[in-house]
């Protein structure tokens, strides 16, 4: 049986806020309003720091839903940012394609894990009910590094037109490092597989 838990925790609300900020950031970048976009991106980053800090320090605020929602919010935010920055000619198309492809596969894996860990009879109401926790996700170390590197590249790319360094060689080196950590992260999930999933047993 799945474990019943309260999904309305502060970290989960912060993750939802981050998801809501993603299209706003995308619009600002497409409109080339990079100064405001930097401020909104800083706010999104603050929600990411806060939800992790709260979940680690208050047991009542930690949830299985949060273990999936936090990285999902990161992936949605990063995907929209990379597509938008690519449209603004600030990030190369191959790198964005690589990142989006990896994230689509990981999100599909999360939905598959949810289905496989749901007790029978499996129904849509059970599947989409956030109160029923069936598995907790544990990201790999290189995946955490990759997320940090991807966000650093976003911040650097957003600041590039503001501070006039869009053609910097250091930005291009960061593109290469981001590609490397993305590939390494994808391999880590393939290699460790089930070790990144903790099935929750009913009480």
Automatic annotation (TrEMBL):
Key words of the record: Lipid biosynthesis, Lipid metabolism, Membrane, Mitochondrion, Mitochondrion inner membrane, Phospholipid biosynthesis, Phospholipid metabolism, Transferase, Transmembrane, Transmembrane helix
Cellular component aspect of the GO annotation: mitochondrial inner membrane
One example GO MF annotation: CDP-diacylglycerol-glycerol-3-phosphate 3-phosphatidyltransferase activity
Any single biological process term in GO: cardiolipin biosynthetic process
Reactions accelerated catalytically: a CDP-1,2-diacyl-sn-glycerol + a 1,2-diacyl-sn-glycero-3-phospho-(1'-sn-glycerol) = a cardiolipin + CMP + H(+)
Keyword Transcription: no
Family the entry assigns: Belongs to the CDP-alcohol phosphatidyltransferase class-I family.
Function field: Catalyzes the synthesis of cardiolipin (CL) (diphosphatidylglycerol) by specifically transferring a phosphatidyl group from CDP-diacylglycerol to phosphatidylglycerol (PG). CL is a key phospholipid in mitochondrial membranes and plays important roles in maintaining the functional integrity and dynamics of mitochondria under both optimal and stress conditions.
Protein name per its UniProtKB record: Cardiolipin synthase (CMP-forming)
Protein source organism: Rhinolophus ferrumequinum (Greater horseshoe bat)
């Amino acid at each position: 049986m799945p474990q019943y838990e309260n999904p309305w925790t502060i970290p989960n609300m912060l993750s939802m806020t981050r998801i809501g900020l993603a299209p706003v950031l995308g619009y600002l970048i497409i409109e080339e309003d990079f100064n405001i976009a930097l401020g909104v991106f800083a706010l999104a980053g603050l929600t990411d720091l806060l939800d992790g800090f709260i979940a680690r320090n208050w047991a009542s605020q930690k949830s299985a839903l949060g273990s999936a929602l936090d990285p999902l919010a990161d992936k949605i935010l990063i995907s929209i940012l990379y597509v938008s920055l690519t449209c603004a000619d600030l990030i190369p198309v191959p790198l964005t394609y690589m990142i989006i492809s990896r994230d689509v596969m990981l999100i599909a894996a999360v939905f598959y894990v949810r289905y496989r860990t749901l007790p029978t009879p499996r129904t849509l109401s059970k599947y989409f009910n956030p109160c029923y926790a069936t598995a907790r996700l544990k990201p790999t170390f290189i995946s955490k590094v990759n997320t940090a590197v991807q966000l650093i590249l976003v911040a650097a790319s957003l600041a590039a037109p503001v501070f006039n360094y869009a053609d910097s060689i250091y930005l291009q080196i960061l593109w290469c490092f981001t590609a490397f950590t993305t590939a390494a992260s994808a391999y880590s999930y393939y290699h460790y597989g089930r070790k990144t999933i903790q099935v929750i047993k009913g009480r």
